[in-house]
Amino acid sequence: MGAGIPLPSIFSDPVYTKSGGGGNFVLSTSLGGYTPCPGAAAPMVHHGHGIFYNILPDRITYSVSAWKSCKETSAEEMSASIQQSLRDMRKLLMTS
What we know:
The chain starts with 13 loop residues before the first helix and ends with a helix. The protein has helices at 14-18, 75-95; strands at residues 27-33, 49-55, 60-66. It is an alpha+beta fold and 96 residues long.
């Protein structure tokens, strides 16, 4: 690794690579901050999604990307799932 320090075994474990270690994350996210700043995040692998989001005082904004050439992913379906999840969480919080 460097300075005579051995590479920790987790970094050579196949599960580490499968989970996204080494830059092959299936879900790539980026927080733009707590201000209205537009942006985007690209998928890191062909069969993945990129999600860019901002948390504002009165709303959460996000954008979703996916490769159109991949039949396994859909930015539209992922966005609809996120939107429904946010609605479900809001309903839960507002009615509890």
